[in-house]
Specification:
heterotrimer; A alpha/beta (about 230); B mainly alpha (about 675); C alpha/beta (about 270); A: about 230 residues; alpha/beta; Rossmann fold; six-stranded mixed sheet; 9 helices; B: about 675 residues; mainly alpha; ABC transporter involved in vitamin B12 uptake, BtuC; 2 domains; two-stranded antiparallel sheet
Amino acid sequence: MLELSGIVAGYDSAVVLRNVDLVVPPGAVVALLGPNGAGKTTLLRVASGLLAPTEGRVLVEGKDMTGSAPYRLAAAGVCHIPEGRGIFPALSVAENLRLQTPPGGGRMAERAVEVFPRLGERMSQLAGTLSGGEQQMLALARAYLCNPKLVLLDEVSMGLAPKIVDEIFEYLHTLAAQGTAMLLVEQYVGKALALADYVHILKRGRINFAGEPCEIGEEMVAESYLGVGA
Amino acid sequence: MSATASARARKAGPLADHRPAVLAALPAIAVLVIGIPWVQANHLWPFVVTGVTDGSIYALAALGLVLTFKTSGVFNFAIGAQAAASAYVFYSFRVDAGMPWPIAALLSLLLVGVVGSLVLERLALWLAEAPAVRRVVATIGLLVLLQSLLTGLYGTATIAFDDFLPTGLVEIGSVNVGVNQMIVVALAIVATIGLFLFFKSTRLGISMQAVVDDSNLLALQGTNPVKVRRYAWAIGSSFVSISGMLVAPAIGIDVNQLLVLFIAAFGAAAVASFSSLPLAFASAMVIGVSMNLLASQLTSNQNLTISAFYTQVPFLVLVAALALLPPRRLVERGARRVRRARPIRAFPRQAVYGTTATVVAVALLIPDLVGPGDLTQYTTGVGFVVIFMSLGLLLWTSGQISLCHMAFAAVGATSFAHAQHNGVPWLLAMLFAVAVTVPVGAIVAIPSFRLTGTYLAVITFGVGLLFQKLLYGTFLMFGKFDNQQVTRPDALNMSGDRGYYYLSLAVAGVCALAVVAVRRSRLGRLLRGLADSPVALDAHGANTRLTRLFVFCISAAMAAVGGVLIAGVTTSASGNPSGSFGYFNSLVMVAVLTFCGRQPLLSPIAAAFLFVVLKIYPPFDSGFFVDYQGVFFGALALAVAVVPGIARVQPSRRGALRTPEGGPVRARRDLQLRGAWV
Amino acid sequence: MTTGQLPDLTVENLTVRFGGLTAVNNVSLTAGSGSITGMLGPNGAGKTTTFNACTGVVPAWAGTLHLGDCRLNGRSTASRAAHGLGRTFQRMELFDSMTVRENVALGPEAAMSARRPWGQLFCPAKEAREIRSRTSTAIDLCGLGALANRTSGDLSTGQRRLVELARAIASPFRFLLLDEPSSGLDVQETEQFGAILRTFVAETGIGVLLVEHDMALVADVCTYIHVLDFGCKIFEGTTAETMSSDIVRAAYLGSEGVSAAAEGLAHA
């Protein structure tokens, strides 16, 4: 589905990603772990076209889309839910849902409400006045509305209450069961591993582990996050 | 934590939605309650009707300005010129080509509104990552270009333009209202409501609000932000074009008059903190009505300043709004992504000495090299070198913006004249002029404490116009005959052209040394730091307000010196808008200095030569070059502002750095800082 | 100004709110002179907000901030700096058009300009000498000698971080706050940065509060660590205690930790 090869990318004078290879097979869930500042967000930005890599190639379904504008990658089926809240706070919930639906997608807002009934009660409210959990649900509704082939998720559980995190992961499991491929950056390592088919660990801009969740031990994750061996 | 947060947020919800509208409505209701009986009692309804008509025209332009500034981050200083262009083109098709007016209007709308929008959208794209100075200079360049082009093509005389809308009268209540007036008002109301519905109910309209918030997110959601901005420019630019055509029959077509008239749209947009469309509409109406009511009350007054006071309303509104609005409502879009300008290249020491020696030698020999008739032009040039040096200090060394520099020069020249009239000798009068101008510079510096970039440019533009329209004509400055006599000093043959040239040169030399001294002093280092990173200076304990105050004061003082020198050339000074001290010259000078580079001394010399002296030599003394001088200056400034951006068109080629504080905290705080858009 | 006792930074019961959102909730901490104290926490934990409250970028909703005996609440950023509180920026605020040496020198120069009302205009010879000596000491300490005449805008991120540190070191600050200095640095550059920081603190006795998300640098240089999560302080202790703390692990790896993940896998 998504193939990143030899990606070198960064901002101005800072190189963040140093020769990263990563593949997300169709329908698979890949967890991308690593400490803060490792370059996870940058990797997702490269995958969705927000940042063009200085070297390397981005292939979506075998098609070279290196340097394509984000809206073209979105049209090709890549759905990036960015860090923070991927919503427009000054627009209403209904308006947000409308922008999330691809043109000609019909009245999809009802479908979003099926998935997140809470949103239904708040359609005319400004999205910025929703609670953190509701905002994230609104952002995640897009992964449903635009029928993506690949969803890039950047710390969608950050700063949310545990109960809401559970609800969101339940939704992600449903999405995965439908065969949507996912690249998941997540702070809740346990939950991410339970969902993932493959795991990559990124550290200081390089992949230093790639494998399956069962191969990875607690100490390995702890070491990569905390920088201390046990 | 998040539970309380959400409860609060929800409670604030419905109010937050309508807060700007509510805030605007309360004073509006108060005005209506008090105003209607007053208007009724004094039979002022005809003035209200004219005011609403004028207001509608300003409203159209203000809506266009707000829409394009919000979506693209580029403030179109040239809307007045664009409106004038539209009116002239309309005139050409209707009168010169004899077409029926609807076709002529449509063609003008297409040419100036739509084709113009394509040009502007492209410029804005190239300016997306430019520092504020370049973004300002680009549209100032466009303004200078258009003004000169239109004056060159159509002349400076006001062209009378017959009404094209039906002129019949309808009696409403006891007031006769023109059908044309009704059509104009209806058009503005339809445009505003239409825009409102467009934003509420169409996907493109919603995208336009979204692109302001977060264009990256919009792109991730599959909508091309560039396309959305293009439509925003098309709508905004068409509104401006229509307003230009509507205003033409009422006052005739005159680009210089329209430039000033459309400041009303700037004022309305400023009151709406450049973001709320209904508020922009409402304040345009208030400006229109209050101008007409003031005019009705004051025209009989003997004092010219008071009787013409109504014309000041737009400038006062513009300056007051920017001075009083909380700075958090005036945060420039994309300010984080700005690429800093390349450092100014320093020449090797040898080259500096060589160049200095050459320039000084040439300057000393000029009276012997050029004819006596040409010498006065060189003396004026020397005066302008001083003003350009002071402008460069502000613009390039300290990174501040002033679009009212000739006002400083005018204050200098007129206080010099006043001192001379009271028998003060030349040198002391010069020092007096400096002493008077320094506090003026300090006052203009105050907005720079809270505003930066485009907003600072807009408010100094307003200040320049206030000086021109409100103060130049008073006894404090040029007086009601718009003329102040000055004399040259008598000693050492300095009253002759040759002597006065050498005197000016000596004064300019002192100023040049002062610039060098400032740049080498601690203040100079702090100024360079201020241009690069005010936050870092602040974090090391320097009081950056004081730094800004100093640079404005020094720059104003030096501009005053330049003003005195220029006045001495003709031994009289006038504040004519198109003369040396006119507000428009402040704009042209910023444009000229921009394409002359950022060298502290060499660039001002080059700029003054191009600006003042070059036009006495062939082929530049031909009618063509004199008429279209502004076209070249404007085009060059525009090119210098835009060219560095052309190579970086692809926004996806680089990413914005991650914001230092991501996540919910920032998202929430941003929401609170942001006024609602519609 | 560095004469006399060097101050500690004391934060007592700090609460910061943005509208309805409590970003920092009742946090207290002390960062002593002569040592490097760490402030750790995952994204969105409130580290940067605490930092900004200390420097005066955001107002403290409740609680007090002291630098030694000097109460900081209500003072402007510049005034806090004038009282000896220095800071660096995560996004590196350098004077990009100037050389490295000019950058470093402008730090103490800006600080000294605030000593007198007209201090911005002239630089007395005595201060000029002091600035020169402070600048060259800082440049030597940070190993920037070879780059001293390069324009800082052209340097790499790692070099720019060092320039910013050198500028803060050269200034007459009595306490330093560093905002995520390791972001954008590779392993080697981070180690180099940590070594310079340790030398600086050992030589001058100035206290440093290091706000970081990267454990490696913190473990390397800090003696005592405070950990924040969800705006609250969840742990404080020595470096060794922090590194072996389950609470800290949970904060970094999600509340269930990795052992729960292993359990989850066993079920699957």
